[in-house]
Amino acid sequence: MVALNKGKAKKEIEFLCTSCGNTTTKWVGRCPFCGEWNSLKEHAVIPAVDGAGRGGRGLGGPVHKVVALKDVSTEDTRRLSTANTEFDRVLGGGLAPGSLVLIGGDPGIGKSTLVLTTLATMTAAGVKTLYVSGEESANQVKLRSERLNVSGSDMLLLCETGLEKIIEMAKEVKPQVLVIDSIQTVYKGDLPGTPGSASQLRECTLDLMVFAKNTGCITILIGHVTKDGQIAGPRILEHMVDTVVYFEGDRNNQYRLLRTIKNRFGATDEIGVFEMTSHGLNAVPNPSRVFLQEGVPPTPGSVVCCTLEGSRALLFETQALVNQTNFAVPQRVAAGIDPKRLTIILALLEKFGGVSVGMCDVFASIAGGIRVTDTSSDLALALAVASNHLGIPLGRQTIAIGELGLSGEVRNVSLLDQRLKEARRLGMTVAVIPSAGKLPESVGNMRVVRVGGLGEAVAWLMDQK
């Protein structure tokens, strides 16, 4: 009896955290690794039996040996351009050979559209590409390509969900770029669970990673996003891939943001801006003009600010609406802004700026649907609230940059010179900046208002009436 069961794999249960990717042998309400509540999900695992190790899945080719770092060859590591300036920017200058890229986003936001048009462009430039569709038939992909005007492309198409077949065909045709759309539909036949389960996602991604590293084939995975904004399945996928990019924005809005969350070959927090048209996604080379409304008179509650997204300085409008409340507890609503940050700034305005909004509803947002976490927008948000409450409009050519401290002081921000250079390029004529530090050389002919505290900033605003 013992001999008969020796080679069989015993089914085990473990609990995997969908937030950090770590596993435990029993369920607990709070993950012991990352502290997230109710994030442990049960899934079945099959441990390897005797002689069934993973010896063939090492990185670096079929022969594995210890080498000195100085002896490692770096030949053929030149990046491959996607011929899309915004996509290249997000990737850190193009696609690195052998890299594994994960693209996530809400359904219908443009993930498949982006990769399909990108592959068509790269194929036209002589790059061999393979598009694997696990969700659509060949006819459906053809119809979509006709709408995108790329139906005449020579890129290779495979409609398959079995991982073994996908890798087999990839080894046969030897593409330079392989796209899996989507990773949740791919499965391994020798593993339990349905496609998209934790074990299937982990093992399929691992095999694709090994394939990419050993062959140098650039592999792009498309992943769905859940209601809470995370890629469906465990976060273990983000740890395994080289680059993670997310689509942001409302799919009903024509402009989409592609943001880098992780990048082993470039800077993180880089963004690319795209415009969705009837023929696909078009790169927007000057996104600041997209988020700044031109040709309208100044209105109270709108102030221009500048944030840094990776290496890019991006101008945007901070808007605020202050109204007498009709409820027992005033509302505080923030869109694109941290609600806690808004609460702090309202308290600073009341204590140091003499602007009392305690019995008013306050609504604040970033125009254009982007989300800003840069604290350099504190001063602009405070002036927007004060401007709307006092009924004093600021000119469209006025920009405010500065971080607010809890003592009411306006603190200096990083790379102020780069921010002001972009502001001057877009026609800003007045800059409200912190008084601390040396005046940047990029000011040029802009009129500079230097403020040391929030009270000074509000006093300057009242002088504009």
Describe this structure in words.
- The protein has about 475 residues and is an alpha/beta fold.
- It folds into 3 domains: about 10-45; about 80-285, P-loop containing nucleotide triphosphate hydrolases (Rossmann fold); about 290-465, Ribosomal Protein S5, domain 2 (2-Layer Sandwich).
- Helix content is about 25%, strand content about 25%.
- Strand 13 and strand 14 form a beta hairpin.
- The longest helix has 18 residues, at about 200-215.
- The N and C termini lie far apart (about 90 Å).
Descriptive key words:
four-stranded mixed beta sheet, Rossmann fold, alpha/beta, Ribosomal Protein S5, domain 2, disordered N terminus, 12 helices, nine-stranded mixed beta sheet, 3 domains, 465 residues
What is the element layout, followed by pairings?
Elements: H1 2-5, E1 12-17, E2 23-24, E3 40-45, H2 85-91, E4 100-105, H3 111-124, E5 129-133, H4 138-147, E6 156-159, H5 163-173, E7 177-181, H6 198-215, E8 218-224, H7 236-240, E9 243-248, E10 255-263, E11 271-277, E12 280-283, H8 287-291, E13 302-309, E14 312-324, E15 332-335, H9 339-352, E16 360-366, H10 378-390, E17 398-400, E18 403-404, E19 410-411, H11 416-425, E20 430-434, E21 447-451, H12 454-463
Parallel strand pairs: 4-8, 4-9, 5-6, 5-7, 7-8, 15-16, 17-20, 20-21
Antiparallel strand pairs: 1-2, 1-3, 9-10, 10-11, 11-12, 13-14, 14-16, 18-19
